[in-house]
Amino acid sequence: MPEMDVALKDAMQIDGAIGVALVDYTSGMALGIAGGTKEFDLSVAAAGNTDVVRSKLRAMEMLGIREGIEDMLITLENQYHLIRPLKGRQGEGLFLYLALAKSRANLAMARHQLKRIESNLDV
Predict the structure, then answer these.
(1) CATH superfamily of this structure's domain 2-120
(2) N or C: less crowded end of the chain, CB within 10 Å?
């Protein structure tokens, strides 16, 4: 999937990017990964954040919320974790996961750039 590789490479150009993954939340499997470190295993992070996405979707269903999720933000002491479920029929069941170093990231710009990357991604 060359388009996916380009999208992941583009996401790694976002200021503060530590790592990015395209994840199937039905299986918890990362379809593509870029970045990460020995201490920050993106495959483990992708699988773990699958539970976050599933839980939020279940909660929204129980509450009768019919809106789509634009993105989810998890703020840690030193990092931001952005989860962006893909829209459209082809992206059904997938999300982009981006980890950022808080000290180097501009959260508003990162969200904007991730949205742009998503709009150009054809899976």
Answers:
(1) Dynein light chain 2a, cytoplasmic (3.30.450.30)
(2) N
